[in-house]
TrEMBL record:
Natural source organism: Paenibacillus hodogayensis
Protein name: ABC transporter substrate-binding protein
Gene3D superfamilies cross-referenced by the UniProt entry: Periplasmic binding protein-like II (3.40.190.10)
Superkingdom classification of source: Bacteria
Signal peptide as annotated in the record: 1-24
SUPFAM superfamilies from the UniProt entry: Periplasmic binding protein-like II
Keyword Metal-binding in annotation: no
Keyword field contains tRNA processing: no
Keywords, in A-Z order: Signal
Length: 452
């Protein structure tokens, strides 16, 4: 979990889990019945993989970050892929111009043939669609008989949302969601029972009122939240935009319910909203509970000194079975790729059970179903031992994804501003949401006009 980094925008989408792999530059495709709906036999797949990986190939990877490095990519992904396919090597291009990188449009203009692009939600549109880099890999999925039953239903649903006809553009490398973290020492200090899985927000509100108190010169806060994490994967599956009209969908009863739910916590005397919960919770130990991003990296576990654990994100009483949605970062295969099969194989291996089992040991939650996941999740992170990590895996009960399109990214910032104005007491929720929707629609219209 990257608690000290910028929030995730909705990372919806993704793809697929794979047990096998891809082709070898077309080798043997005529013999395997491409286009007739018949998947090749396993032996044919193995032969095609061997052919595709028989010669050295350099795969160009783009990461839209100025700080991400070649070394980081190789440590997490590249070196592991090379153990599987020794002839594949990788060149990372980042947004950092000082080390030969730049924006993806600049690299394309320079003639760099990008093969793989790391995207997450809205960045699919800004990086892939806006640069005409989309590349549907449905043919490879069909040809090589990938087991889509390995995907969780919520992942499969999101996987299909980027294409108007269910196209699939890449392979997810992990899933990220939200959970409720709590400081055991504060609960112990005030004799309050720990949170439990399956609680409602009303029950957590009651806990927050008991734990917001002054003790000597120290003010304890019962609850804080990472709203930028929570809203994009909200449990009520409320979207930001009407994809048919390109109008923002902020001024409605569902967003009002969501905002009212969190804003009420900050009406508790002594539990004022703080812009960032990170230091107050993980460093200072002044916050009893935090609703925030779960899974991803768990770097904070190695630095925090508080005695913490986590439970499932509490439910709305109106939707008692709906957990939070999923964010799905994934590697998309670019239309500029000169090594389409090999790039697909690399991404597919990241999404394979073999890779994901090892990845799960580092605390990353896999996008595919893995037998006995809880036996391996976080196993290689000593400070996660004994933690309730299943609370970070809302895969079986994840909220259904909502529709979005290329204009989605224009909207979340206006909702976040509306929320902060409400919790600061500057505006009532109705006014804040109405003005946010109006401002978002104006921004969307400006973008639409700029494309004419």
């Amino acid at each position: 979990m990257r608690t000290k980094r910028a929030t995730f925008v909705i990372s919806t989408i993704a793809v697929l889990a794979l047990t096998g792999c891809s082709s070898g530059n077309g080798t043997g495709r005529e013999a395997t019945g491409q286009g007739d709906g018949v998947a090749p036999a396993k032996n044919d797949i193995a032969a095609q993989i061997a052919a595709a990986t028989s010669k050295p190939v350099v795969i160009n990877v783009f990461e839209n970050s100025a700080t991400y490095t070649q070394e980081q990519f190789m440590e997490l992904y590249g070196s592991k892929i090379q153990k599987k396919y020794p002839n594949l090597s990788f060149k990372l291009y980042s947004a950092n111009k000082n080390n030969g990188g730049g924006s993806i449009s600049e690299l394309i203009a320079q003639g760099v043939p990008i093969d793989l692009v790391k995207v997450s939600g809205a960045s699919f549109y800004s990086l892939m669609a806006d640069n005409k880099l989309e590349n549907d890999v449905s043919d490879l999925i069909k040809l090589y008989g990938y087991d889509l039953n390995k995907l969780y239903p919520a992942v499969l649903d999101q996987m299909k949302m980027f294409g108007s006809k269910g196209e699939i553009y890449g392979i997810p490398n992990a899933t990220v969601s939200t959970a409720l973290f709590y400081n055991k020492d504060i609960f112990d200090q005030f004799g309050v029972s720990y949170p439990k899985d399956g609680m409602t927000w009303d029950e957590v509100y009651d806990l927050a009122t008991k734990l917001t108190r002054q003790d000597g010169s120290r003010q304890y806060m019962g609850f804080q939240e990472g709203y930028g994490h929570l809203f994009p994967v909200n449990q009520l599956s409320q979207g930001y935009i009407d994809t048919k009209t390109n109008k923002a969908t902020l001024n409605n009863d569902t967003w009002k319910k969501i905002i009212d739910n969190f804003a009420r916590f900050h009406l508790i005397n002594g539990n004022a909203f703080v812009p960032s919960y990170v230091d107050p919770f993980w460093k200072d130990g002044n916050v009893a509970m935090v609703a925030a991003q779960s899974a991803g990296t768990w770097d904070f576990a190695n630095t925090t000194t508080i005695n913490w654990d986590l439970v499932e994100l509490p439910r709305f009483k109106e939707a008692p079975k709906a957990g939070p949605g999923l964010q799905l970062p994934f590697y998309a295969i670019a239309s500029t790729s000169k090594n389409r099969d090999q790039a697909f194989l690399a991404a597919a291996y990241i999404g394979s059970e073999e890779f994901q089992k090892d990845f799960a040991k580092l605390g990353y939650v896999p996008p595919i179903k893995i037998d006995n996941l809880m036996d391996v999740l976080g196993k290689d992170v000593p400070k996660l031992a004994g933690k309730n990590l299943k609370a970070a895996v809302p895969l079986e009960f994840a909220a259904a994804p909502y529709p979005f399109n290329s204009y989605f990214s224009q909207v979340p910032g206006f909702l976040n501003t509306a929320y902060t104005s409400v919790v600061a007491g500057e505006k009532d929720v109705n006014t804040a949401l109405r003005e946010a929707e109006e401002a978002a629609n104006k921004k969307i219209q400006e973008v639409l006009e700029s494309k004419k």
